[in-house]
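Exercise 3.2. Students should predict the tertiary structure of the chain below and write it as structure tokens, then compare their answer with the key that follows.

Predict this chain's 3D structure.
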Amino acid sequence: MVEEVEPKFTEDEDLERAKAFWKENGRSIITGIILGVVAIGGYNGWQVWQKSQGESASTLYENMQDSSITYEAAASIVEDLKSDYGTTPYAATASLLMAKKAVENGALSEAASQLQWVLSNTEDTGLQHIARIRLAMVRLAEGDADATLRLVKDFAREGGEPEFVSRYYEIQGDALAENGDVDAARESYTQAQALLPGGASNSSLLKLKLDNLGNF
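Answer key:
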């Protein structure tokens, strides 16, 4: 039986093999190392940038919440948030707040613009629901019941958080009542009422709206 001999290399042979390997693979190894370092550095830089963005946006939003701020100054802050920090939650929340200020100042068109921006620029479904509900109310206040119905009708029929769906049904009822469709309005109000949790503050208002349908 022939005993197997473990292959051994001299230092010169090892060196030559190492040189050949490096010549063939060195560039890809270096590239991989560089990309790895860049990726790590880029991720850390991205985290720092995000933190900085969030802090700056937060400061602007806090300034906007100051009770002494003028309408014009608030509007300017919102535009800064939308242009410089549009991907942060602060921009969408500030737009909702600006819409509220606009309604209080009788600027329904400006309110609608702010709410539409939220719908188009946030992926937060909760904020989208709030913006859509408020936009529907603005359209109704403008006297456009048909635009209101277009905004809410699909969402009043889909599954989702009962509180939101209830509000969609309620606003749909408001728009239908405005259009003189009393039976459909009554059905919408009833659906809205059925979705409310027990003791909800809006329940008495819905009952009042149902009672008032008799005056149409």
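Discussion points: The two ends are 110 Å apart (CA to CA). Residues 143-216 form a domain with the Serine Threonine Protein Phosphatase 5, Tetratricopeptide repeat fold (CATH 1.25.40).
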